[in-house]
Design a protein that fits this description.
The protein is of the alpha/beta class. The protein has a single domain, classed as 3-Layer(aba) Sandwich (Rossmann fold). Helices cover 34% and strands 16% of the residues. Strands 3-2-1-4-5-7-6 form a seven-stranded mixed β-sheet, sandwiched between helices. It is globular, with a radius of gyration of 17 Å.
Length: 238
């Protein structure tokens, strides 16, 4: 494909976000893009960069043990809710402007995406108030306050590779190595950036992790929202 054939002009950005945005998701979304149905009951999961997602609140009903880690957990619920409102405005404007870059089959429409995000926030806030630091740890990649091998699987949703313009290749590799220190397996989704382009960091990170002795593979998932984002990265510690 030549430069003139790419479907999105280089440097064309519909999403005007101030850095990494807190934008929470639900259990069924994690199920779809992380293919969680293959994990047994009792699996110890770490949700890295979970933000105001309700995954840690909902997943225990499925028999998973979930801990979430994110820098926003250093703030109280009111402050997190305020950050969500700022994010929602920018995200909604971006989704409307870039609607041609999304497959709306799973969600239906931009208002329904927003409805889901707000529902996730409400579930998160109630669970955050109830469980606090016992389930939600304040911390940020590439150094997390978690012990070696303390989790079975680490999930990184809508952080690495998506924010490839803000986070360089060295950050991505250090973050993956940190996640593999903590968990025997790491799953990452999506693998394209906010402009809808494949991440330039992905091949480099995969080669480096394989050189470290880990098993890195791209796994198709039954989910597509950003057009072309149909695979997750799964790395198993060597």
């Amino acid at each position: 494909m030549t430069e003139t054939q790419t479907f999105l002009p280089r440097h064309h950005k519909e999403f005007d976000l101030d850095g990494i945005a807190p934008w929470g998701r639900r259990l069924d979304e994690y199920d779809a893009y992380f293919a969680l149905t293959d994990l047994p009951v009792g699996t110890r999961l770490l949700d890295i960069g979970g933000g105001p997602s309700s995954f840690a609140a909902e997943a225990p009903a499925r028999g998973f043990s979930v801990t979430a880690v994110d820098p926003i957990y250093a703030f109280d619920g009111q402050a997190i809710a305020s950050q969500f409102e700022n994010t929602a405005k920018a995200m909604r404007e971006g989704m409307r402007a870039a609607s041609y870059r999304f497959n709306w089959a799973f969600y239906g429409s931009e208002p329904l995406v927003h409805q889901r995000r707000r529902a996730a926030l409400e579930l998160f806030l109630a669970d955050f108030a109830m469980h606090g630091a016992s389930r939600y740890i304040a911390g940020a990649l590439p150094q997390l306050p978690c012990g070696d091998g303390s989790f079975d699987v680490a999930l990184i949703s809508h952080l690495l590779f998506l924010y490839g313009d803000e986070l360089d290749g060295a950050f991505h590799l250090a973050s993956m190595r940190e996640a593999l220190r903590i968990a025997g397996e790491v799953r990452v989704f999506p693998l394209i950036n906010l402009d809808g382009r494949p991440s330039s960091h992905l091949p480099v990170v995969m080669r480096a992790l394989e050189a470290d002795g880990h098993d890195a593979e791209l796994v198709p998932v039954d989910f597509e929202f950003q057009i072309g984002a149909t695979k997750m990265l799964r790395v198993r510690r060597g």
